[in-house]
Amino acid sequence: MFLRRNRRTVNGECYEYWTLVKTVRTAKGPRQEIVATLGKAPGLESRTRYGWAGVADLLEGRTPAVQGRLGENLSAAAAPAQWAQVDLRGVRVERVREFGQVYLALSLWRRLGLHTLLKEIIKPGGEDVPWELTACILTVARFCGQRSELEVAERWYADSALEDLLGVPVGQINDARLYRGLDVLLAHKDKLCTHLLKRYRDWFGVEFEFLLYDVTSTYFEGQALDNEKAARGYSRDHRPDCKQVNIGLVVTPEGLPIGYEIFAGNTADVTTVEDMVELMEKKYGQAQRLWVMDRGMISEDNLDFLRARAARYLVGTPKRQLKAFEAQLLEKENWAPVQAGVEVKLVAHPDGGTDEQYVLCRSSARRAKEAAMIQLARKRLRAQLDKTHASLQQRPAREPGVIERRLGRWLGRFPAAERLLEVTVERNAQGQACGLNIAERAERSAWAAHAHGAYLLRTNCSEKDPAKLWRWYMQLSQAEDAFRISKSDLSLRPVFHQKTERVAAHILVCFLTLALWRTLEMWMHGKGLGTCSRQLLKEVATVRSMDVVLPVKETASQETRDVRLRVVARPDRLVAELLVRLGLDLPSVPKAVQNVVEKNGG
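The structure corresponding to this sequence follows.
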């Protein structure tokens, strides 16, 4: 679900409002439905004006003391008005900074309690900037899409409002300090993961007996000679030319990340399962958790390992195993719809002798997609084969082996279509290749037509409702979505670090940032704002902080001085409504940060 900004003109007057929209699948394709229209937020007109002195309270959701003039703690009634004569010709705005996104990220950081945790576990060592603040800067910068520590130090920090919110001067932020901050943070990875578990439970009531596991990869810029885990392997980023590392991530059904591990870049996904299960059990105990994994993680050895530890599992299976269930797949009885165009059925293995259950699933949309893909592949392969056949009939090839190797390359490009065709090279009396004999494999084609859109799930869980099992498995998309967020929004890739420890620290910062991102989605969901945090971030990015410089004339001395007030721009009405619904207040009372006295005409 996501937020949509709407405009409507009535009697020549324009009205703006938010709607909560979700995307649904229909027979005619994806469509968008309005879930709710978000009306006027209560209390928007009468918000108490809090000042900068209460920023820490605002970030953590507490109500600070009411602020009077220039940040003094005064009651609203006792705050006297200040009057001054201002030369309007000299009024100007300076030092415009990014405020909305960093303020939101900092609110998430503090409400997760990461600032207090790091302050407790990292002992001070005489550093100018506390390490917990350095870790905060690294994570907030990653949340705002910054790609490297060098970029943060040279440009982004100075252009953001973090100097005002954290109290760390721009001159104290440099790349060396940020790199050292990575080294310090890495030593506390396990404590950070354990702390996040507790905060998820306290804030959202999340339980951890149902875990989703998946693996992705991220590649390096450079040769990564100092990284012992960097290696070439199957690249999900389509960069086989670059070395990479693999990352195994465990998330809850809500998509909240709770643990991860880094593997060598040439590690097969199936070999990571035992390490990750043992890691989770070491940290959180050996409970009878339900592990949900896709078919790339599964081997019989892995399933035996899980059964030996009394763990439950729900996994996808390779497509080839579907053939054993052909009879059940073709039966028309006992199918139960779980959503539009999707049906499931609980079956036992045809051979028996197992305590496992199997869930047959078929999707009409997936069936149409797979059929279209096979048809396109078959068309392209057949066109090339026909072209080769016509060429050989006109001019036979003296060396049939050359034709066979060429034929093998083309068949390898279309493996799905190749299984449906049988192709042999014809030879004439002189032993030359004079054509191709192309035959359809009718039995395989018929089975492929039945298998389109069908897939098989496997579990040792005692649950008897196939619809519930299917929904549990579909939640694996939360792990896949976490990887998409990490790579596209959080700039996990590419990795510019070269050393093993620095790469591990970089991934830890991305993990913490993913925790902020998913926490924001849960926060939005609890407030009825959907789960599309991208739209919310886009809206709050319009909020800026700035210095308003007022040339004030002092009556007694007849001198003019510049009064510099640091303010946060008032968001437009719709963005203000979003912030009110989140319960997130902005400092609205100006702060006097600098007074410069100048002589008249000076």
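The CA atoms of residues 477 and 545 lie 38 Å apart.
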